[in-house]
Design goal:
- The chain starts with a helix and ends with a strand.
- It has a six-stranded mixed beta sheet, sandwiched between helices. It has a four-stranded mixed beta sheet with strand order 7-9-10-8.
- With 333 residues, it is an alpha/beta fold.
Length: 333
């Protein structure tokens, strides 16, 4: 998020006052745009070549085009035909494409398209942001990076040094070591989680199709009251559900749905997990089939006693290292 904010503040200094993005979008991105003095507009983008006409019509002034692929939380992935859209926009002197690639290791589509690093290095109108948080399962390190043309890097470095007086050198070295080791184990854990979900959700009415990318899944669980749903999921299924909005309402199309991390392996799934056998139907019955109009991040919590654990566990994303968890805004005892 610091990389996105850094880039947006730099673009605002260059005269950019408008940003467009797909819907839904992570609230932190939207808020960073507004904090930089850039007004945001959500568009019903499809991730196909048909987006070009809509984006052209919106770029009537210096405009930031924010692209997040694989998308959080829908799992849409970069398709080969979309590279032409990005390249065409990046060529315009009044458009800057910010490409958020924090999930780019998790593209499981049949025609995987690599993140356009070459385009970012050669074209000043496109910049890529990435981090170890999602792609390497290390959110606590708070280390990320920017890939951009040399002229953009020269402009960003002084701003970074001014905004961040001292960087955690140990965290940087740890991040370099993690990147050098690679993330094959993590990616395969997510792949196993996808297979486990397909196995456990077979025949359940509440189950939805798997997206091509990302580490999350949106399901219509029929919950309307976010607070009651969070309490129910935690008490009945030992699943932590942060009771807050993580994405703003959609600009168009169906209402956003709850999303979660179903789990990485068959043997790792506790009985009664909402995304396990019977769990989805149980949660749907709790919601009485009414639509729930706010997305929900649900993180699996390991518990061997039938009570909520004080440690967070995200088997779907492969992050099996225990981390302190906050439940409903208060530290868990």
């Amino acid at each position: 998020m610091h990389a996105i904010g850094l880039l947006l503040r730099d673009l605002a200094d260059q005269g950019y006052r408008k940003a467009v993005h797909a819907t839904p979008v992570f609230c932190g991105v939207r808020d960073s745009m507004r904090a930089a003095g850039i007004r945001n507009k959500a568009l019903p983008l499809t991730g196909t070549s048909g987006d070009l006409a809509l984006l052209r019509s919106e770029c009537t002034e210096p405009t930031v085009v924010y692209v997040n692929l694989p998308h959080n939380p829908t799992g849409e992935v970069l398709r080969p035909g979309y590279l032409d859209v990005l390249a065409t926009l990046a060529e315009r002197p009044d458009v800057h494409v910010v490409y958020d690639a924090v999930y780019d290791s998790f593209d499981f589509g049949p025609d995987r398209c690599p993140t356009p690093v070459d385009l970012a290095v050669s074209e000043p109108g496109l910049t890529i942001v990435n981090s170890v948080s999602k792609n390497y399962g290390r959110p606590g390190d708070r280390i990320g990076w920017i890939v951009a043309a040399e002229e953009n890097i020269r402009r960003l470095v002084p701003r970074l040094e001014w905004e961040a007086v001292s960087i955690n050198g140990r965290a940087q070295l740890d991040a370099v070591a993690a990147i050098s080791r690679g993330n094959t184990e993590l990616v395969e854990a997510v792949r196993a989680g996808r297979a486990a979900y397909l196995t456990h959700s077979r025949g359940l009415a509440a189950a939805g199709p798997l997206p091509l990318g990302g580490t999350q899944l949106w399901l219509d669980l029929g919950a309307r009251d976010i607070e009651r749903f969070a309490d129910f999921a935690l008490e009945r299924h030992h699943r932590s559900s942060p009771p807050r909005r993580t994405t703003p309402p959609r600009a168009a199309g169906p209402d956003p749905l709850p999303h979660g991390h179903p789990g990485a392996a068959d043997e790792a799934r506790p009985d009664g997990d909402p995304s396990g056998p019977g769990g989805l139907e149980d949660v749907r019955r709790k919601g009485n089939g009414r639509p729930w109009r706010q997305p929900l991040t649900a993180s699996a919590v390991r518990s061997g006693t039938g009570a909520a654990s004080s440690r967070e566990w995200r088997p779907w994303s492969g992050c099996s290292r225990p981390r302190p968890m906050r439940s409903r805004g208060r530290p868990t005892p």
